[in-house]
Recover the amino acids of this structure.
């Protein structure tokens, strides 16, 4: 209806008051009929601001947040929040914003098989007044801003932001990954969202998000995450405690071999290998990309050279991973609920085993058990770098594609000034609405393109004259007398 580049509350009011059909405004209670011949009353901008502010006030769990208490003399006074108050409000906030996101999922679309987890920066409308140095954590001790909850933090350098530092928040989200047999593989919908200050732990936010999802929807079977999450032992322990398998990339500082004294195996990149595995295979350089798209015909000379180098690096990686796989142990079933897992041992190049190796369990037994406390941070269902692992991990980039859509001017345009609001809760509420809008936009476009036959309300095609109607006195009276729609 409107070409709106921002989602400010002024534009929200404009859309509600003039962008919806009059009869629908009556049904929603946005527009009311005032007596016979007295005209109509429509929601004001002040009412929109007030309602949004009151919602945010009841969900605000910042350290400086307060609650209004009624004294015996009926005078309102502000009381500081207790730790219990803040915890309760934070849980309520996380529940509400994800109810908004979950409501944008058509019931005809099945639950995703794997969730791709990642984080992205969200700049605040407030300007920082203070230092920004190489260590954003120390800069936050002296920074001042109209947005008291925004902090300095690190972000991935892109052509859009042009910096490795940002002042604001981090959004942590999951995107659903579907298998080809599901029939909805192209859909990459945002499943869950949360928000945290830019200097806060995204791992803590991610685990809170998983906990909320398990309460509201269902515990996901597997989660795929990049090295920003998997480097933390807290992340691995949190997923294990919830019975969730992880598909993870290996951080360079975690790469290499570590011996397990009880069994004699070498845990290389989180997977058990025989101890006589050649040293040159202990650390294998990660390629720039695990999958490489076909080169464009009009690529420049520099792009051709880069594409060739990437293909060469990936081919070398596959070669070394396959060679190391000959020394890897084979799983004997899935991991147990207590974290233990059984493996078949390998006899490949057993003549290389030393006298010490020949005394270990991995040499003398056909099967061994790897306990839960052996390299727990790096353990996963598939062997890192194997073709099966690449096939399962590579679609994780879908969550980054959703960020591109959210921040694109042709999408939700989430960049500085897109809402012009301060505070974590207010930004988080608008983030949830942006995620819901993204999902509706993506899934409706998919349904239109594929001709999906469905009766789901979210996927039913709009009539060509949506938003336009002939208004008569009888229509207005009937609309005004109809009961309002439930919120």
């Amino acid at each position: 209806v409107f070409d709106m580049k921002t989602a400010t509350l002024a534009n929200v009011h404009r859309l509600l008051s003039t962008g919806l059909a009059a009869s629908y405004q009556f049904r929603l209670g946005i527009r009311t009929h005032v007596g016979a011949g007295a005209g109509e009353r429509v929601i004001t901008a002040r009412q929109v601001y007030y309602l949004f502010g009151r919602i945010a006030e009841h969900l605000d769990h910042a350290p400086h947040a307060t609650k209004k208490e009624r004294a015996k003399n009926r005078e309102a006074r502000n009381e500081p929040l207790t730790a219990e108050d803040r915890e309760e409000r934070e849980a309520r906030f996380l529940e509400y914003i994800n109810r908004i996101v979950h409501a944008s999922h058509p019931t005809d679309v099945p639950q995703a098989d794997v969730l791709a987890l990642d984080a992205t920066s969200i700049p605040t409308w407030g300007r920082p007044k203070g230092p920004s140095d190489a260590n954003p954590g120390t800069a936050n001790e002296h920074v001042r801003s109209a947005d008291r909850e925004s902090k300095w933090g690190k972000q991935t350098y892109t052509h859009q932001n042009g910096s490795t530092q940002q002042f604001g928040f981090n959004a942590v989200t999951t995107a659903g990954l579907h298998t080809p047999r599901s029939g909805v593989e192209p859909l990459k919908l945002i499943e869950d969202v949360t928000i945290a200050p830019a200097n806060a732990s995204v791992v803590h936010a991610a685990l809170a998000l998983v906990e909320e999802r398990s309460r509201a929807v269902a515990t996901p079977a597997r989660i795929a995450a990049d090295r920003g999450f998997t480097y933390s032992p807290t992340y691995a322990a949190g997923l294990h405690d919830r019975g969730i398998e992880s598909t993870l990339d290996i951080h360079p500082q975690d790469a290499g071999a570590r011996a397990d004294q009880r069994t004699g195996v070498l845990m290389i990149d989180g997977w058990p290998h025989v101890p006589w595995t050649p040293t040159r295979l202990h650390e294998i350089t990660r390629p720039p990309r695990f999958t490489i798209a076909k080169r464009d015909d009009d690529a420049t000379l520099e792009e051709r050279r880069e594409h060739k180098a990437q293909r060469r690096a990936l081919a070398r990686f596959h070669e070394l991973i396959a060679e190391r796989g000959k020394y890897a142990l084979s799983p004997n079933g899935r991991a147990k609920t207590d974290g233990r897992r059984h493996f078949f041992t390998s006899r490949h190049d057993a003549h290389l085993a030393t006298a010490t190796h020949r005394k270990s369990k991995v040499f003398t037994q056909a099967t061994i058990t790897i306990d839960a406390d052996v390299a727990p941070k790096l353990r996963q269902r598939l062997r890192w770098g194997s073709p099966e692992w690449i096939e399962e991990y590579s679609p994780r980039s879908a969550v980054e594609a959703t960020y591109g859509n959210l921040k694109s001017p042709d999408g939700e345009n989430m960049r500085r000034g897109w809402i012009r609001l301060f505070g974590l809760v207010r930004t988080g509420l608008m983030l949830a609405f942006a995620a819901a809008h993204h999902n509706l936009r993506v899934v409706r476009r998919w349904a239109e393109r594929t001709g999906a036959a469905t009766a789901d309300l979210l996927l039913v095609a709009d009539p060509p004259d949506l938003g336009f109607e002939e208004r008569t006195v009888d229509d207005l009276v009937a609309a005004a007398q109809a009961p309002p729609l439930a919120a």
Notes: The two ends are 22 Å apart (CA to CA). Residues 8 and 340 are 52 Å apart (CA to CA). The longest strand covers residues 165-177. The chain has 15 helices and 16 strands.
